Amino acid sequence: xxxxxxxxxxxxxxxxxxxxxxxxxxxxxxxxxxxxxxxxxxxxxxxxxxxxxxxxxxxxxxxxxxxxxxxxxxxxxxxxxxxxxxxxxxxxxxxxxxxxxxxxxxxxxxxxxxxxxxxxxxxxxxxxxxxxxxxxxxxxxxxxxxxxxxxxxxxxxxxxxxxxxxxxxxxxxxxxx
Length: 177
Known about the structure:
This protein is an alpha+beta fold and about 180 residues long. The protein has helices at about 5-20, 40-65, 65-85, 145-155, 165-175, and strands spanning about 30-35, 90-95, 100, 105-110, 110-120, 125-130, 140. A hairpin with a 2-residue loop joins strand 3 and strand 4.
């Protein structure tokens, strides 16, 4: 049933109204490949399989917590399915006064108390810290050429704080998850 409502048209209207209100700060948009565009080689899958097999074997022989083996196996299968699905593009638009649109879903500035930028090798990641105590932070890879413009736009709405990559993030990046 077509009710004449189109999410993309509404987003375009909201973004256009933002740019009319803030001619000095137009919305910033870019598209990024999903999974950060990283595909896994056959060698990665072989090593991953060996590690999963070793963990399950140790569990069965030493710990005998069969639930742990089931959880490890289900998690491994889910991860392989996740990396095997085709890459999808993610569109980002930063509105000067509303917030951040990720694939037409608005994340208003009111959800966040501050933001920061983390450099990971040659890539930059924008991290928005939630106002809710147990809220999830929002992490977005940003193109280097738009970095200063993005920081200036968000900086008008939220305070910037220094961010560092924590140990878990470093481990995850190191093993390529």
